[in-house]
Design a protein that fits this description.
Elements: E1 5-8, H1 11-23, H2 30-50, E2 65-70, E3 75-80, H3 87-93, H4 100-111, H5 118-128, E4 139-147, E5 156-161, E6 166-172, E7 178-185, H6 195-206, E8 213-216, H7 218-221, H8 225-233, E9 238-240, H9 257-268, E10 276-282, E11 288-294, E12 310-315, E13 318-321, E14 336-341, H10 350-354, H11 357-380, H12 382-396, H13 399-402, H14 407-413, E15 417-418, H15 430-435, E16 443-448, H16 452-456, H17 462-467, E17 472-474, H18 479-485, E18 488-489, E19 492-496, H19 510-522, H20 524-534, H21 563-571
Parallel strand pairs: 2-8, 12-14, 16-17, 16-19
Antiparallel strand pairs: 1-6, 2-3, 3-7, 4-5, 4-7, 5-6, 8-9, 10-11, 11-14, 12-13, 15-17, 18-19
Bound molecules: adenosine-5'-diphosphate (ADP) and magnesium ion.
Length: 574
């Protein structure tokens, strides 16, 4: 029973397809990268599952991806002998948008104001990745034939769709394990039937993939018909057309920036280039290689609690798991890359990752590498660093609360908007602040508020303006968390300007002090009357030198929750 059925795409799929075709058209050969990337993932998954069940290799242990051209049929096929898909897996992964990621992508599209524009679409797609559906950039029909490793030949599945709303699914016999994706090229995309053209695209995009990518020898050698006719009688011969070594194992001197950039796109599913990277090999008792990347743009799910981290774990070149969140702390969750350990067991599980000394060491070293990378960028390429900060600053601000040991180094990377800087850009470092401190000033002053404007226009700042003392303007949600953990930087205490008695230290001038005392004497009755009429609502009413133009302001006690934190907690329902 072939059990053929026609199923509707989930509504979002058609939308994604339309968008993909429209906005990636100018860069259409990426379909090959996406399909080869999936094929290579499938090979790596098989290799991993086979660690505990080597029956899965059947009689075909050499994992590879093949790209085949059929000029007569007008098709290009990407074929792998990887893990394959069961019927249900095809429905779940190809026929619907299973990942919440893509769903969020569609929501982001729908909620965007002012309709769509190509540049915006590209940026959005860059954040989500399109994968399999990129096939429809060049194909008007795609057939996927797959068999899951471990199932018998009659459990193959054939999926086919023109990408316009529905697809068919039937059970077929498939002797070889793995997946064939057959692209029926659109009439004006026949250029991809040229084996040389495909070869050059593979060289560009898939050179660094550890799995060999093969093409049929004759297809680009036998150009004359006689040879071709001969070739048809023989079993096809294949040859590897990519380099096929894991990029991170090659030496730095052997790699160009373009190599690193392409590899980043492969592992991150990001269409944009990375902002920076760090590639290191550590030798000794714990040997491992790391290649870590900073993306240009924050992923759409950076604020999602469920969000997985983007570092892949390999052991001796064997892919073990995606999103190995023990390799980096939460506050560096935007970092992508690869860690390949020579010393972990191949059967390493999530549980082992939880408490393993080697993993802890790698994690600690990863943090240090990223901190150095950022420090160097901040020093040598301040504009690039600013770009980084604008995207990821809010996440980095979680650092001091989570990583006590690196608090000071993270502090050095923070950037703020201040009473001296203009606009809302956060560009002033604590070191710059300290350099600009007034004579006699020994504290770093800050104000927290729920918006940049509220911070900038707070009456609490009047006296600081008058004395020319810079104040950090904090209005990100995470700022309260930051200042509750970063109490000092380079020996300078961080002091809220809205808390407790105004303590200007050496800055307070004698004259003002005398004035205060005098005012307290003169207006003692008024203060008392105010306190009486405000009753329980205030703790104290007092004269202050805090204000210059405003008549009065509300202050919280030194050890009380700030008014802004109270607001934030209330907003999240605490
Ligand atoms: P991603 O690769 O980011 O998960 P894709 O759209 O490229 O997204 O692929 C969606 C899913 O389809 C994959 O996660 C995988 O489960 C499945 N898939 C696609 N191609 C293959 C393949 N060649 N072999 C096995 N599974 C595949
Ligand atoms: Mg993919």
């Amino acid at each position: 029973d072939a059990h053929k059925e026609t199923l509707e795409f989930k509504a979002e799929v058609s939308q994604v397809l339309d968008l993909v075709i429209r906005s990636l058209y100018s860069n259409k050969e990426i379909f090959l990268r996406e399909l080869i990337s999936n094929a290579s993932d499938a090979a790596e998954k098989l290799r991993f599952e086979a660690l505990t069940d080597d029956q899965l290799f059947e009689d075909d242990p050499d994992l590879r991806v093949r790209v085949l051209v059929d000029k007569d049929a007008g098709t290009v096929t990407v074929s792998d002998n990887g893990i394959g898909l069961s019927r249900q897996e095809v429905i779940d992964t190809i026929g619907s948008i299973a990942s919440s990621g893509t769903r969020r992508f569609v929501e982001a599209l729908q909620s965007r104001e002012g309709g769509s524009d190509a540049a915006g679409d590209n940026a959005l797609i860059g954040q989500f990745g399109v994968g399999f559906y990129s096939a429809y950039i060049v194909a008007d029909k795609v057939t996927l034939i797959s068999r899951r490793a471990g199932l018998t030949a009659e459990h193959g599945v054939r999926w086919e769709s023109d990408g316009r709303g529905s697809y068919t699914l039937e059970t077929v016999e498939k002797p070889g394990r793995g997946t064939d994706v057959i692209l029926h090229l659109k009439d004006d995309e026949k250029e991809f039937l040229d084996a040389w053209r495909l070869r050059s695209v593979i060289g560009k995009f898939s050179d660094h993939i550890a799995v060999p990518v093969e093409m049929q020898k004759e297809q680009y050698e036998a150009e004359d018909e006689e040879k071709e006719a001969q070739a048809e009688d023989r079993a096809p011969e294949f040859e590897q057309v990519n380099r096929g070594t894991a990029l991170w194992m090659r030496s730095k001197s052997d790699l160009s920036d373009d190599d690193y950039k392409e590899f980043y796109k492969h592992i991150s599913h990001d269409f944009e280039e990375p902002l920076a990277w760090a590639h290191n090999r550590v030798e000794g008792t714990n040997e491992y290689t790391t290649l870590l990347y900073l993306p240009k743009r924050a992923p759409w799910d950076m604020w999602d609690r469920e969000q997985k981290h983007g570092v892949k774990l390999y052991v001796k070149r064997v892919f073990i798991m995606d999103e190995a969140d023990k390799l980096l702390p939460h506050w560096l969750r935007f970092v992508k890359g690869v860690v390949d350990s020579d010393d972990l067991p191949l059967n390493v599980s999530r549980e082992i990752l939880q408490h393993n000394r080697k993993i802890d060491t790698i994690r600690g070293a990863n943090v240090k590498r990223i901190l150095s990378l950022l420090e160097t960028m901040a020093k040598d390429e301040p504009e690039k660093y600013q770009q980084f900060w604008d995207e990821f600053g809010k996440v980095l601000k979680e650092g001091p609360g989570e990583d006590f040991a690196n608090r000071e180094r993270i502090g050095g990377l923070l950037r703020f908007s201040t009473t001296v800087s203009e606009g809302t850009e956060q560009s002033v470092s604590l070191d710059t602040y300290i350099e600009r401190m007034q004579e006699g000033q020994d504290k770093i002053y800050y104000i927290t508020a729920d918006s940049p404007a509220a911070a900038r226009h707070s009456p609490h700042l009047e006296v600081f303006r008058k004395k020319g003392v810079e104040v950090l303007l904090l209005s990100d949600r995470v700022d309260e968390w930051l200042v509750s953990h970063l109490h000092e930087y380079k020996g300078k205490h961080l002091q809220s300007v809205t808390k407790g008695k105004l303590d200007l230290g050496e800055l307070a001038d004698k004259e003002a002090q005398e004035k205060t005392e005098q005012a307290e004497k003169e207006h003692g009755d008024l203060l008392k009357r105010l306190k009486e009429s405000l009753g329980e609502r205030v703790q104290e009413v007092r004269v202050s030198t805090r204000l210059v133009d405003s008549p009065a302001c509300i202050v919280v006690g030194e050890h009380d929750m700030s008014a802004n934190l109270a607001r934030v907690l209330k907003a999240v329902g605490q």
